[in-house]
Each structure stands twice: as structure tokens, then as C-alpha cells.
Amino acid sequence: MNVIPTQHMESFEAHWGVPGGIFQTIVGSQLKGVELPCPPRIRHELHLDEQGRVILYEIEAKDQNKPIILLAHGMGGCSESGYMKRISTKLWMQGYGVFLINHRGSGPGMGLSSRLWNGGASDDLAKMIDFVIQRNPDKFLMPIGFSLSGNILLKYLGEGQIVPRKILGALAVNPPVDLRLSSAIISRKWSCAVFNQYYMKLIRNQAVALAKQFPSAFSPLKNLKTIWDFDVSYTAPSGGFKDVDDYYDSCSSMHYLKGIEIPTSILCAEDDPFVPGRIFDQIEMSEKVALHKPKKGGHMGYIARHITPHGDRRWMDYAILEWIGQLENTQ
Fold it and tell me: In terms of Cα–Cα distance, which of 205, 204, 183, 120 is closest to 154?
């Protein structure tokens, strides 16, 4: 089911000065844009279990007839990541209510859980989605997962648990649907060394906060150099998996795409340095899943040749808002 016309989700033209996937990824992450007004937020603390609390921020809707949008951040990120703040503000300016989540140990929730989140945390996501729906029982919900959260969202939708009827549709942006492959690329490919160092720095910040607040918990504070090493030494054992292969096999969303039963779109550039476009050619998908693969864009970069209707070159934001508007019109 193609929720969005092809011209919106696949017509991306890269800026001439940002030609390849590596550069698109770096510039997309580091480019500072026009300062947008900061909408007021409501802070929620949600207890996931006895030793697990997370922080969600709610931006109240200006238009009560619009659906709620849930934004879930990528690895090392949080509600304060640039793309989360930027897109939530653009949504708020168009009248939408927005929830920005923080996974275990992330952002404002650092030090509130005895373990860090991982790429298979669909049970946590389910609890956060249920919380949002309970606060807005009369509204539809559209969850959007970025990067690692995109993988979690797809797993959640296709693994067989009951998906609330209030979810109108879902979008995964550059999801690493094969965790083993993406981890290996980031950890071992020389062209991705800068990204590995960047993510490991963010993860270490989370690890320090966890160890300080939960000194008896299984510690992620080890002298680990790569994402792969981190998954072997911490992610797999802390998450209750037999080993890293068990983690990768059971949590990679490529195994669950055929089970998705609600309208779902995947946006992933063919030149994403961590998620090779070819991987999707080998995956069985439900007819409810629409795959959109612009040739360029990198990993959540999408710095455009032309200025979008929102006054900047952030094509990813434009595509997301167009997807939301199109899907909203189907309800």
C-alpha cells in the first residue's frame, strides 16, 4: 500500500556540495539551521519496570482534530537531538500534538534505568505507545522511528503483539533492518570510523550515568572500541540474549516485515552508509509496507539541492510532513 505518492518520497535531489552518502550523513547531523521557536513541553516520567524509568515530552496540539505524532530517536540520541527538536517544532507549528520519547538511559532519562536500551526494545516502545494513546483516547497516533528506533518500530508492528487500532500508520526512517550487517559496517569499515567513534562517545556518556546511579548493575563501562564490541560485551548479556548472534537474529526487523498489518512506510536512501539499499531486495515484506529508496540522502541526511516549502534544505522533514498529511487524509 503506497501511502505517499512516489514524487514526494523518492524525488530527493542532493545538494551539489553534499554529493555522497557519507557527506550527506555528516552534514545532515552537524548542519545548523534557522532557529525555530521552542514549543512548550509537558514532562512525563513513565515506569517501565521496577528499575526502568523513561522520560517523554509532550507538545500539546494546537489543532485538536489532528492525530498525535510520536517521534523515537536513533542510537546515541534522545529527545534533544537536533532532528527531534526540529521536526517536532515544525509539526507543532502545523497544529499537531507531538510526543518525543527517550529510550532507557537516554537524554533526560540518563541514570533512571539499570540498563541501556537496545535495537529490539519493542516491549518498551509498546508501553510508551500505550501511554500516549491512554492520554489521547479519541485521537489517532502516527509513530515515526529514526534509525535504530525505526528497526524497533518495525519489529513492534510485525512480531505478532496486538497493535492498537488507534495507530493510523507508521514510518521508519533509515532503519537498520539487519542489525548484524549494520553493526559490522559501522565497526569495521574504515569510511565509517568517524561514525563509530561518534556513537561510542554518546554511548559512553549514557554508560557513565548508569554506573553512577546503579553501581551494582551490569556495567557497560568497559574499554570497548566499536559498536560490535559493545553489542558482544554489553547489549547481548544485559538484554538477556544468549549471545550477540541471538540478539542480532531475534531483533533485526527484516524478520518481521512480512507480519505488518497496518500501513507502514520505510524511507531509506540507497547510499545510506550503514544500511545498504540492496538489503531490502532480499526481504519478504507485507503488502502493507511501502519501501521508498531515493538514490541519495545518506543516513538521515537528505540535504536537498532545492529549498523545501518549509524554507530550508531539510528534505527529510519535508517528506515526513508530507507523509503525515497524506496519511491523515485517509482516516
Answer: 120
Q: φ and ψ at 41, to 5 degrees?
A: -125, 150
Residue 34: per-residue pLDDT: 72
33-45 pLDDT per residue, tens: 777 888 999 999 9
Q: Which CATH number fits the domain that encloses residue 117?
A: 3.40.50.1820
The contacts of residue 53 (CB under 8 Å, 6+ apart) are: 45, 46, 47, 109, 112, 113
- Pick from 139, 157, 150: nearest CA to 96: 139
The pTM assigned to this predicted structure is 0.95
In a domain, 282, yes or no: yes
Radius of gyration, CA atoms only, the chain: 18
Distance from C-alpha of 317 to C-alpha of 305, rounded to nearest angstrom: 14
Task: Write out the residue range of the structural domain in which residue 263 sits.
Answer: 6-179+257-328
Q: Residue 220 domain-assigned?
A: no
Which amino acid would we find at residue 313?
R
